[in-house]
Amino acid sequence: GDRVDVHWKYGEKEEEHKGFFGVEWLRQNCYSTINTSERRRKLIEPLVAKSLPIVNYTEVEKSDEGLFRWMKELCDYGVCILTDVPPEKGQVVKVAEKIGYIQETAYGRYFDVASYDSADLAYTDSELLLHSDQQFYSYPPGIQLLHFLKFDDCVEGGINCILDSFPVLNDFRKKFPQHFETLTKTRGAWERFHLNEGSNPMIRPTALRNEKYHISLDSFGDVNEFIWHQGMVGPVRIPEASECLCASAREHMLVHTYTGACGAIL
Asked: How far apart are CA 161 and CA 260, in angstroms?
């Protein structure tokens, strides 16, 4: 059949209980070496440009199947290109609301990236190095949506780069095991203190600080989370650890800056 039925008794009265588990679900979550290796392989294999998943917005808008496909691509690869989204201001909110509640930040419900006289690099025409966003929050947004409203001859710059950090970190781990271990066991600091944002009306006064590990490992010892943002690094308040942390962070910057472009880290 296509499912396994489990019957058992529970409690002092030994009440009868039943559970039904689909064969496909059991296969996806079984503990066999083959299945475990397959799940881990998705995080180890590099994600290259030619394999970036693409979904058309019409599919997402008109069917649950299209929405599920988009969500699955995001879960499997951490990034997905959604094409043919109407180029209207605020449309990104409508897209986001299809998958969950929007988490407001110091930037508001959503924000337009434009050039202002601002202390925030995101609102200037300066280059943004590879980074992961909003790390000064205890719970940073899990999914970030970027909606490009203009993409033609009238636009200068705006080149984006997405880095698959897992193969970079695996390489870093082999070459610099001591520095890798430091970044998994010593908390870094991420902060944002801006009380006057110049001419930018879109950012609220902010005073936030959070401490967390640069690299987190799962139960198999594989990397499952990575945090990096040079523009938000705060002072480490552990004197004996600061020198090791700085040395490890410096070494990692040399490893991954070969990309030479602005963008996000997955």
From this structure: 9
Contacts of 141 (CB under 8 A, 6+ apart): 103, 105, 133, 134
Residue 26's beta-bridge partner residues?
Answer: none
Yes or no: say if 132 and 210 are a contact pair by the CB < 8 Å rule: no
Compute the distance between CA of residue 54 and CA of residue 129 in angstroms, rounded to an integer: 25
What lies within 8 Å, CB to CB, of 222 at 6+ separation is 40, 43, 44
pTM: 0.69
In tens, the pLDDT along 153-199 reads 666 666 777 888 888 888 889 988 988 988 898 888 878 777 655 55
The tens digit of pLDDT for each residue in 56-106 reads 999 999 999 999 999 988 888 888 899 999 988 889 999 999 888 888 877
CA atoms within a 13 Å half-sphere pointing along the CA-CB vector of 17: 8
Cα 163-167-169 angle, rounded to 5 deg: 90
Q: Which burial class, exposed, middle or buried, applies to 246 when counting CB atoms under 10 A from its CB (0-12, 13-18, 19+)?
A: middle
Which of 127, 125, 107 has its CA nearest to residue 117? 125
